[in-house]
Structure formats: C-alpha cells, structure tokens
Specification:
The chain is an alpha+beta fold and 175 residues long. It is 29% helix and 32% strand. The chain has one domain: Aminopeptidase (3-Layer(aba) Sandwich), CATH 3.40.630.30. Pathway: Amine and polyamine biosynthesis; ectoine biosynthesis; L-ectoine from L-aspartate 4-semialdehyde: step 2/3.
C-alpha cells in the first residue's frame, strides 16, 4: 500500500493523514464511516468489502496514522472509459475540516488520469456541490448539471439525483 498524498494536519497535532488505494481489509471501515455519515445511502458491509477488491484502482481512502478516516469510491463507466464516476465520498468526524475530501478527490483524479468525472448530487447537499465545484475550478474544467434520476426511479422518499459532469479536466497544469 503506497501513500499517494498528504492531508493538512490539525494545528499542533503530530498526526499525519495520507491517502492510499483501499484494500479489502478497509471495507468494514468504509461501511462504518458511511453509516456514521447519516447522509449517504448505505450499502451492505459486503458491498464495501467487494468494492475495495473490485474497484480499488478507481477508489481511495484517507488514513489518520493507520486508521481509515475517509473514502471516495468510484469506477470507470463502461460506456465512457474516459469518465470516472464517483459513487460516494465520506469523511469521518476525526478528519473533517482538514480538506480530506478535496485531497482524496484530487489524488484519485490524478491517479486515474481520465479527463472527465461524473457524480450525482441531490440539491440539498451543499458540501458535495462545493467540493465538486472546487475540483472543476482547480482543474480548469467546466461543470454541467442535468437531471438524472427522479421519483420514477428512486421513489417519492428519495430526493432527485442530478448528474454533474466535469471536464475535460486539465490534470497536467493544475492551478
């Protein structure tokens, strides 16, 4: 497991947070962080372990010392292999306020190296919208929004999901 990036330490703290490729041993930690977020649609423990096995190359975790404190799960779209689809982003309370989500996203985009990123976000998720807008700005890329899934697909109890497409991203001349 190799460290990819480094996240800003807390003031006065010697703790170091790094990013790395997830392993199957990290799957349960992802599930716990997703559950604790109270914002994500939580998948089964098995799904997170399987994700860490089958989609490790397109996902990333943040570690505070040796403990997983955040993750971004993604995959390359089969119909658009130049597009990374980001499925979920979550940060444990221990790493909030340290730019962990933005650092993980930047490191993942750089590692995967494709020019486009897609994700879905509900209108009430201001933190995600700000994070993805920041990525678009840092990579000099436009961000487009279109309706994707509404009540017909997700049911009346789920807010509509809007597709955000960022790209082409300029990864070699990042601001």
């Amino acid at each position: 497991m190799s460290a990819l990036g480094s996240i800003e330490p807390e003031t006065g703290s010697g703790a170091r947070t790094t990013t790395s490729v997830p392993t199957t041993a990290d799957g349960v930690a992802l599930w716990k962080i997703a559950t604790a977020s109270r914002a994500l649609d939580v998948n089964s423990r098995y799904a997170y372990v399987l994700w860490c096995r089958d989609f490790a190359a397109t996902s990333i975790v943040a570690r505070l010392d040796d403990r997983v404190v955040g993750f971004v799960t993604g995959y390359l779209r089969p119909e658009r292999p130049d597009t990374l689809f980001v499925w979920q982003v979550a940060v444990d309370e221990a790493a909030r306020g340290r730019r962990a989500a933005a650092t993980m996203l930047d490191d993942l985009v750089a590692r995967v190296g494709v020019p486009y990123l897609e994700t879905t976000v509900t209108d009430d998720n201001a933190a995600s919208l700000a994070m993805f807008s920041g990525l678009a700005e840092r990579t000099g890329a436009p961000m487009e929004r279109t309706a994707l899934f509404g009540p017909a697909e997700l049911g009346a109890e789920h807010d509509p999901e809007f597709l955000y497409r960022i790209g082409p991203m300029h990864l070699n001349d990042r601001r």
